[in-house]
Amino acid sequence: MFIQNILFNLRSSYTYRLLSIFVFTITPVSLKADFNGLSSDSRINSFVYIAFLLLSILNLFIYRYRTQSLRNSNKLLREREVTAREVLRQRNLLSSRNKSIEDSLKYAQGIQEAMLIKPSEIHKMFPDSFILQKPKEIVSGDFYWGKKIGDKIFLAAVDCTGHGVPGAFMSLIGLELFRQIITVKKIYTPSLVLDEMNLSFDAIFDNYGDISQKDGMDLTLCVINTNSNILEFSGAFNPLYIVRDREIIEIKGDKTMVGPYIGFERKNFTNHEIQLEPEDKIYMFSDGYADQFGGPEGKKFKYRRFRHLLLSLCDQPLSMQKEILENSLNDWKGNLEQVDDILVIGIVPYHHPLSSKALAKEDHYSKSNNLMILSTTSST
Predict the structure, then answer these.
(1) What is the CATH number of the domain that holds 201?
(2) Domain range spanning residue 340?
(3) What angle do CA 315, 316, 318 make, to 5 degrees?
(4) Residue 347, class by beta-carbon neighbours within 10 Å (0-12 exposed, 13-18 middle, 19+ buried)?
(5) What's the pTM?
(6) Rounded CA separation 194/174 (Å)
(7) Mean pLDDT throughout 271-285?
(8) Is the dihedral of CA 284, 158, 161, 380 positive or negative?
(9) Same domain for 106 and 159?
């Protein structure tokens, strides 16, 4: 009875007409005549059987397709799960290695800081002073060194090749060379100190062939006589800035770096002598501040803007100047990455009172551009 109802419904339905057309289309010509000779109910039965056969075949294909799709999906999920586990394992391994490296760098930072002179020691030698130091990484290739021997105060600002670990290793060499040359060998003239450092680098790297022309240090070295208030300066690339009467006097360093000999002609460094005045402020620095990218156009800060900033701060206490310099740098940098180690030292170098001998000499000094330069000589 149920089948008869289906057949009756099919006879008058749109599906029946579609099946008739479909079956008639795919039925061979030899069978079409046989279908034409069948009664109406027999035709419907034949169409239904064929339709069921076709639907069964279609369902079989659909079943196989879905089964294969599910298998492929399960395989893909398993592969992704394996990949995810491997990624997690690698991430945990990398995190563990990074933690180990970071712990090693922090330990190295402690060693480096132990060898560096403390800021408090600089403050004892120059009560009105500041040191702005911002390593790019945990350890730094920029460092400063100071020492008081008798009536002379030595102060150096050094920028070693690179930053991070390579720069830190070079800084340890530089610290030891300052100690050996100034404290042990008692060479007190800045230009002669730098010449001697070059010779020491040659000896250190004598058996090491893979030396780049950029391996070494850019630096400024000052020696201040606390009795005569005469400043001696010698520089490797880096200049010295003296702020006097709201003007910046730039004393340029020699265009050569301190480092091992690599085949180029290497001249002796020049020694500059300057008579200090009570209100003078001097600044020693690496190139990290001026080379920092930032601002609205993502450009370098540059030395011109740096000099303008120093002039705008000339009436401020040096302790406040440090804060303003740091804030200005952060505002300029914004969200950009720090590109290099940064070191800026500011001091008031003048010591009171002048000795009577120095006072007697003052009348014999000649002024040039508001700066009394006693002599400029090249060491031999």
Answers:
(1) 3.60.40.10
(2) 119-378
(3) 125
(4) buried
(5) 0.71
(6) 11
(7) 96
(8) positive
(9) no
